Amino acid sequence: MKLTPIGIWGGYPKANSATSSFLLKYEGFNCLIDCGSGVLSSLQNYLSLEQLDAVVLTHYHADHIADIGSLQYSRVIQYYLQESPKTLPIYGHSKDVEQFTKLSYKEQTIGIPIDEGQTIQIGPFTVTFCQTNHPVYCLAVKFSIQERSIIFTADTAWHEPLITFSKGADLLVSEANLYEEHIGVSPGHMGGSEAGRLANLAEVDQLLLTHLPLHGDVTNILKAAQTEFAGRAEIAVVGKTYEIPSLKSSN
After folding, report:
1. Rounded mean pLDDT of 19-33?
2. What are residue 219's DSSP bridge partners?
3. Is the dihedral of CA 67, 68, 71, 77 positive or negative?
4. How many other C-beta atoms can be found within 10 angstroms of the C-beta atom of residue 4?
5. For residues 56 and 129, is the Cβ–Cβ distance under 8 A?
6. Is the separation of the CB atoms in 160 and 194 below 8 Å?
7. What is the reported pLDDT for 249?
8. Cα-Cα-Cα-Cα dihedral sign, residues 208, 214, 219, 224
9. Are strands 171-175 and 139-145 parallel, antiparallel or unpaired?
10. CATH class of the domain defined by 2-243
11. Is the confidence at residue 251, as pLDDT, over 60?
């Protein structure tokens, strides 16, 4: 599995950047996790839009879905150019019926419902979900191949079930939207120390911090995470490839 950060900001993107989003690749299958502001522009530095095979949305706040309409238009343009793109599946929860309905657009995209506790197959990935602690319904997502796994916390305040959900993951991609002095003040988000504590209690191999605040020095969030987690931790770097090697076949 190869993971490339497309954007790392929460709320809105800084200049020439994008909100938190990731491209997950395995053996030619390309899955985009969240599609907020600036994501479509950034994504094209690493992949042409027609090469996308699936999109997974954690929830329907604007910084996670703002570019979905533009993505749908890109498929229409490909259709008019007679490139006949395949229908793109967009996975999102159906608890917000209005937003879920918008995921299906003509024959170009189709919304597929997801929910907590569910296990589905998206291309080569076995995918499971866990509800987070956020003002709107939001799902953490686990992508697995064999015994390898990557966890995306999505947007969440501290949430005990995420410890079990993330247990033993190769990579924990955690939101860290708050400086320590803001923990508990801004609902639905974690600080660096909480992301580090989650990584420690879940005994993951590596921690990647994302959904960062647009003010202050974000290296302080990393430092806070490192007070709780002694393993490898870093702030996600847009365009960098984080690779989780597949298990070797026993045959």
Report:
1. 98
2. none
3. negative
4. 23
5. no
6. no
7. 36
8. negative
9. unpaired
10. alpha beta
11. no
